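In response to the reviewer comment on reproducibility (Comment 2.3), we provide here a single inverse folding case reported in full, input and output, so that an independent group could reproduce the run without further information from us. The structure tokens appear first.
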């Protein structure tokens, strides 16, 4: 993020293009238009949860700094890089000042994080792209169905 960006910048999950869930400390995201899916653990899952709560950039950074007071890492830079990755993959979108739901206090998932600060990482998976992008009605074998794509029929 550039230093000129407002510290109170907030984001929304890019719905309906993105479906997501946080399960057992892991955020799992599916980007429907690309067929890619993503995951983030630890701090990344917590930041994803805070995004869904419309927490601001500054709220996230301050809460993490309070949760990891002994951290020698660059928490602000790590959060900036993670948000940049989420934006690059179109998983989130910025909320213009005054738009979107009112900000709320962030939930305390960070209380469950222990030890040294580990920068959040967005894991990107495209191995299922072809299957996830199949039209389950028109592009599958009639007998076997999804996820078996239609075979190309040879012409005489």
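Designed residues, in position order:
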């Amino acid at each position: 993020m550039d230093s000129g960006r407002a510290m109170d910048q907030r984001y929304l999950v890019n719905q309906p293009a993105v479906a997501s869930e946080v399960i057992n400390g892991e955020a799992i995201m599916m980007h429907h238009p690309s067929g890619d899916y993503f995951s983030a653990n630890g701090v990344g899952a917590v930041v994803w949860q805070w995004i869904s709560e419309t927490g601001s950039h500054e709220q996230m950074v301050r809460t993490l700094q309070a949760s990891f007071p002994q951290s020698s890492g660059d928490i602000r830079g790590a959060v900036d890089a993670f948000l940049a990755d989420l934006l690059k993959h179109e998983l989130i979108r910025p909320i213009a000042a005054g738009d979107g739901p009112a900000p709320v206090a962030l939930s305390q998932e960070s209380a469950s994080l222990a030890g040294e600060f580990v920068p959040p990482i967005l894991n990107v998976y495209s191995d299922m792209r072809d299957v996830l992008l199949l039209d389950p009605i028109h592009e599958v074998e009639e007998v076997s169905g999804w996820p078996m794509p239609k075979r190309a029929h040879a012409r005489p």
